Amino acid sequence: MGRNARVQRRLRRLHAELRERPVNFDPRQRPALTPETGWYIDDYRQALPAEPPGPPVAGGSWEIARRLLRDYRYADPAIVRPVYGAGAPEAGRDMLLEGRFYGLRFYLGVRVGDVIDEIVDHDGRRAKVWGWNYRTLEGHLERGQMDQEVRKWLDTGEVEFHIHAFSQRASIPNPIVRLGFVLFGRVTQVRFHKRACRRMERLTVAALAAQRGTPDNERH
Predict the structure, then answer these.
(1) Which residues contact 52 (CB under 8 A, 6 or more apart)?
(2) What is d(CA 130, CA 186) in angstroms, rounded to the nearest whole number?
């Protein structure tokens, strides 16, 4: 058996084992998970190319961003990439992620919580929203949840990518890994979020340009 086959066999096993792992925090306690109780709260919004007011345009910015979000393409693979269980998000689906952390690789389990596809009212405005979240499982370096969604404001046509996350360090038995996470985990986490926003904008703009047949040297 070749090395690649052995690696794939191990990843399949790790992914299958996620079924037996519980979420490592209580989602019902979300209102109490605040900075005052030791949790990081992150909220990022990235403007994407706008559309005309009204419902999302076929092949437009919102639809492209939705596809990128569905396929986890917004994540920088130099930091985190899905290695098993990826696909259209469904509630209860387990995903095995590979986290890259200063030359080391960690396999991290998460479970899809909610999938949202609806029109929401916010401060008197209506938006078409599609998104999903995932929650960390036992054995993950962190505890928490990340929500990611794309919105189109129907009154103005503005489109945006939105990340909202709450997290804290999980129990890490290995003292070296624990020290490394204490020193660099938060920095890497913030970098992931910021790169995700920039990557979503870049990929959305590139996909729109490709549809229009815009030469590479005219896309910026």
Answers:
(1) 157
(2) 28
CATH of the domain at 43: 3.30.530.20
Closest Cα partner for 108 from 121, 99, 120, 119? 99
pLDDT digits (tens, 9 = 90+) for 39-74: 999 999 999 999 999 999 999 999 999 999 999 999
HSE at residue 25, side-chain half, CA atoms within 13 A, is 27
Closest CA to 42 of 194, 200, 198: 194
Instruction: Return the structure tokens found at 112.
Output: 């899809």
Domain span including residue 122 = 3-218
> For the chain, what is the domain count?
1
Checking phi first, is residue 53 left (phi over 0); if not, alpha (psi -120 to 50) or beta?
A: beta
